Amino acid sequence: MNRRVGIAVALALLYVLWGSTYLAIRVSLEAFPPLLMAGVRFLIAGGALYTWGRRSGGAAATARHWLQATGLGALFFVGGNGGVVWAETRVPSGVAALLIAMVPMWIAAIEAVVFGLRPTAGRAVGLVVGLVGVALIVGPGDDGGRVDPFGALALVGSALAWATGTLLSRKVDLPGDAIAASGMQMLGGGVLLTILGLLAGEHHATVVLTARSVSAFLWLMIAGSLVGFTLYQWLLRVSTPAIASTYAYVNPAVAVLLGAVFADEVVSPRLGVAGLLITVAVALISIFRAPLSPSAATASAGSEARTETDGAVRPAPP
Predict the structure, then answer these.
(1) Which of 6, 143, 154, 286 reaches 20 to 30 Å from 207, CA-CA?
(2) Which of 97, 143, 93, 95 is nearest to 268 (CA)?
(3) Pick from 204, 83, 208: which is nearest to 152 by CA?
(4) What is the overall mean pLDDT for the chain?
């Protein structure tokens, strides 16, 4: 198999695997409480990734590494994934995927508001288009597309947490091995999610295991976290970040389709238009990058080179 065919196959698998995680979360929630389910998932997957990274020759992590990895894990896997899991107790999986797809929009907004990085015209248009799409999803309507406002708010917070973690991860000091660093963040997030679940009393919840719910949980852990992450890392090595990140345009469509087919989720005309607007917005924001001053460009180049090799930034789905 030549490289182009391998890249095409890996992308197709990534689109399906990561696009399916939203439905798998919903099915897992039929049996498991949300925070403990997410916590156990990341403890197991994170432990496997960290062990794999260490055995491949990665340097041992210091206490400082663990502290910073746990901080990022709180943003990515507690605020990010934990918010998605909780929100899916109230909103359809397809809606969750559409709102989380706006992570690039929130990154661009933070860069503009906090760091003063004025967006290009294309990015500005993308931000406006994206906001219209979000408004269509969360706004009132009588076409069967009404979305629970608390679930929608949790998803907006999740996207913001993931965007914040992505920006902060460019500045933290983590082990050079991408797999070990990602495993550390998953472990940190898994510990925090488990503690929150215990504090919320989720360990008292009645758990009725079914083949369907257990299969969905295993799918999340193996296909979503381990296989999907490995494919993404391979794509970053053999292609470009732009190609590897095209999953951001495709995952929402896959999630909406799977939710409609396997979970009878309603795809209203308003939701369809919102999904199209969000996809266009993400594409515009990703394509039209903001120009940097020479000094900022130099610093950014060094930062981006580090994150592309050490795995500090991984725009992974739930």
Answers:
(1) 154
(2) 143
(3) 83
(4) 85
d(CA 220, CA 77): 14
Please indicate, yes or no, if residue 38 is contained in any of the structural domains: yes
Q: Is the pLDDT of residue 297 over 60?
A: no
Domain tally, the chain: 1
Q: Is residue 20 part of a domain?
A: no
Q: Determine if residue 290 is left, alpha or beta; phi over 0 gives left, psi from -120 to 50 gives alpha, anything else beta.
A: beta
- Count of positions (residues) in the chain: 318
Q: Which residues contact 46 (CB under 8 A, 6 or more apart)?
A: 182, 183, 184, 185, 186, 187, 188, 189, 190
DSSP state of 202: G
Which pair of structure tokens corresponds to residue 143? 């076409």
Confidence band of 248 (pLDDT split at 50, 70, 90): confident
Q: What pLDDT, in 10s, does the model give residues 142-196?
A: 555 568 889 999 999 999 998 899 888 878 888 878 888 889 999 999 999 999 9
Q: Which of 1, 26, 45 is nearest to 314 (CA)?
A: 45
Cβ–Cβ under 8 Å, residues 176 and 58: yes
Q: Are 180 and 46 in contact (CB under 8 A)?
A: no
**Are the C-beta atoms of residues 97 and 274 closer than 8 Å to each other?**
no
Domain that holds residue 171: 34-204+266-310
270 neighbors 145 (Cβ within 8 angstroms)? yes
